[in-house]
Amino acid sequence: MTRQSRLARQSRRLVPPTAVAAIVLAAWYFGSYVLIDADRRFLLPAPHEVVKVGFLDPVNLAELLAGLRLSAEVAVTGLICAAVLGLALAILMSQARWVERSLYPYAVALQTVPILALVPLFGFWFGFGFPSRVLTCVLIALFPIVANSLFGLRSVDPALHDLFTLHRAGRLTRLVKLQLPAALPAILTGLRISAGAAVIGAVVGDFFFQQGEPGLGQLIYVYPRRLQSEMLFAAVFLASAFGVAVFWLFGVLARRATAWHSSQQRRPDTGGAAH
Amino acid sequence: MTDDGIPALTMEAVGVRYPGGTLALDGVTLHLAAGEFTAVVGPSGCGKSTLLRLAAGLLAPTTGTVARASERLGFVFQDPTLLPWRSVRRNVELAGELTGVPAGERRERAEDALRRVGLSHVAEALPGTLSGGMRMRVSLARTLTGRPDLMLFDEPFGSVDEITRGRLGDDLQELFAADAFAGLLVTHSVAEAVYLSQRVLVMADRPGRLVGEVAVPLPYPRLPEVRFSPAFTELTSQVTALLQGGAADRIEVAA
Q1: Which of A166, A169, A258 minimises the CB distance to B58?
Q2: Packing angle of the helix pair A180-209, A216-225 (nearest 10 deg)
C-alpha cells in the first residue's frame, strides 16, 4: 500500500468523527453564549471554561484524578473478579447440562435485577467501602461474560468435537485445546461489554453510595449541589473518557488475541498456490 | 483381507434408528479387506455419512455389529476441520498430540506428512490464509501422521472446485499406492467413486441400505485419461443404473 493511499484511508476514517466533534463544540458554544443568559451560564459553561477550571487548576485536577483513581480501581477489580467468576461459571455450565439448567436462570435473573437498587443493602452488610463497590461492579459486569463465554464454548464446530472424540481426547484436553481457544472471540466480546458495564457500575455505584472516599460518581453527585458546573462537566467528561478508553483497550486486545479469526482476517498472498 | 484374513472393517447386519424413531440404516453388511479401497455412493440423506460414523466408532449401531481390525484409524471430514488459531504444522501435529506421541516424533511425522502433500512451504501459515484445496491437504496430512490402517473419507472434496477436486483425487491415489491403507470413501460423485476405488457400493434411501455393488478392475495408477475410456464409461453407467434402481444387485465388469 502506498503512503498516499494509507494517508487517504486514515483521513477517510478520521474526518467524519472530527467533523461531528467540531459541530458538537460549535453547538455547545452557541448554547452557552447565545441561548443562555450570562447569569445562567452555569447551566452550560463554555468548553474552554471547563478545561480551565477542571483540568488546568492543579487543586481541582488533583481532586478529579483522585476520584478517577478510586473509580478505576473499583472498575478494574470488579472486572477481574467478574471475568474469573463468569468464565468459571460458563465452563462449568458448558460441561454439564444440569449445571447450566441449575445456574443459568439465576444468571439471567441477575441481569434483570436492578443491581443499583441493592446498593443500600450492600452498604448495610459490608459497609460503604471498597468491597461493596467492587461487589456492585461484579454483579453488573458478570452476565455478559457468562452469556458470551457459554455461547462460545457451546458453539464449537461439531466436526471438531468428532475429531477430538476420534483421538479419544479427555474432557480437560477438549476444553483446553479446543473449546477455550474456539470460544476466545466470544469471551473477549463478553469481556468488552463487561468492561463498559464495570465502568458504569463503578461510577454509578459510587453515585449511589454517597459515603466513604469519593470516586467520580460522588463528585458528580456533589458538584451540582455546590453549583460547580465546570467541575461537574469535567468529571462527566473524565468518566466518559475512562469508559471509552476501557472499551477501546479491550477492542485492541480482542483484535490481537484473535488475529486468526475470520472476522479479523484479510487473506495474504500464499505464493500463488491455489489448490 | 489382512495376512491373517481379518478384514480391516466388518459390519454385520447393522441398523441405526434415531431417537425420533427414524430408521437411518437397515441391515447393512460390509466387509472391507486390508489394503482395499471401496467407495460408497448414494442419494443425499441415504445414510452414507451415518455409515462412516459407525465405521469410525463415532456412532453405535442400534442393531448388528461393527468391528475394526486396527485402532489406527484416519477420518477425513467433509470440511478440513482445522483449528484456525494453530499454524498448519501445529494442526498436523494435533493428532499425535492427542494420542500422546512424543514432541520430537510428532514434529518429524508432521514435517514428513506436509512434504508428502506438498505443503512444507506453508507450514507456519494460519489455515485461514490458505485456499480450500490447501486446507483439505492439511487435513489429509494430519490424518497421515497417525499412520492409519483404515482411512474413512466423508465426501472430502465436496467443498472445492472441480479442478482442485481432480488434483486432490490424484493426490489421494498416490497416498493410497504408497501406504496401502484400507479406504472407505463416501461421495455423491459416481465418476470420483469409480476413478478412485476398487469397488463401488450403491446405497438407496428410506431406510438407508446397500442395494448393489460394482467391482472396478481398472489397474492403478489410474491416469486422468482413464475417465475417457470405454471401460470407465461402462462402469459409471452401471453404478448410475444401480442408483436409479434399474439394475441387478451385483454386476461384475472385466477391465
Answers
A1: A166
A2: 30
Here the cell at position A243 is 469508559
Q: State pTM to two decimals.
A: 0.82
Give the span between the Cα atoms of A170 and B119, in whole angstroms: 30
Identity of residue B176 = F
Please give the share of chain A, as a percent, with pLDDT higher than 70.
Answer: 94
Rounded Cα gap, residues A209 and B89, in angstroms: 55
Q: Select the more confidently predicted residue: B170 or B66.
A: B66
Nearest to A162 among B58, B85, B99 (CB): B58
How do beta strands B209-215 and B37-41 pair? unpaired
B92 within 8 A of B110, measured Cβ to Cβ: yes
Here the cell at position A37 is 443568559
Q: What are phi and psi of B193, to 5 degrees?
A: -60, -45
3-state secondary structure of B63: strand
Query: Any idea what DSSP says for residue B157?
Result: T
> What Å distances lie between residue B12 and A197, B6, B130, B197, B203, CA to CA?
59, 14, 41, 22, 16
Q: Do A271 and B128 touch (CB under 8 A)?
A: no
Which single residue is written with the C-alpha cell 502506498?
A2
Count Cα atoms within 13 angstroms, Cβ side, for B182: 21
Task: Check CB contact under 8 Å for A270 and B122.
Answer: yes
Of all residues in chain B, the one with the smallest CA distance to A181 is: B85
The CA-to-CA distance between both ends of chain A, in Å, stands at 27
User: pLDDT by residue (tens digit) across B131-183?
Assistant: 988 999 999 999 999 889 999 999 888 777 888 888 888 888 888 888 889 99
Is the Cα torsion angle B33, B36, B37, B38 positive or negative in sign? negative
First to last CA, chain B: 22
| Helix intervals (H) in chain A | 3-30, 47-50, 58-95, 97-112, 119-126, 130-154, 158-166, 171-174, 180-209, 216-225, 229-257
- Please name the residue of chain A whose CA is at the shortest distance from the CA of residue B74: A166
The H or E element spanning position B188 is none
Q: Is B178 on the interface with A (CB under 8 A)?
A: no
> Residue A67 phi/psi, 5° resolution?
-65, -40
Cα–Cα distance for residue pair B39/B52, rounded to 1 Å: 11
Count of CB atoms within 10 A of residue A250's CB?
19
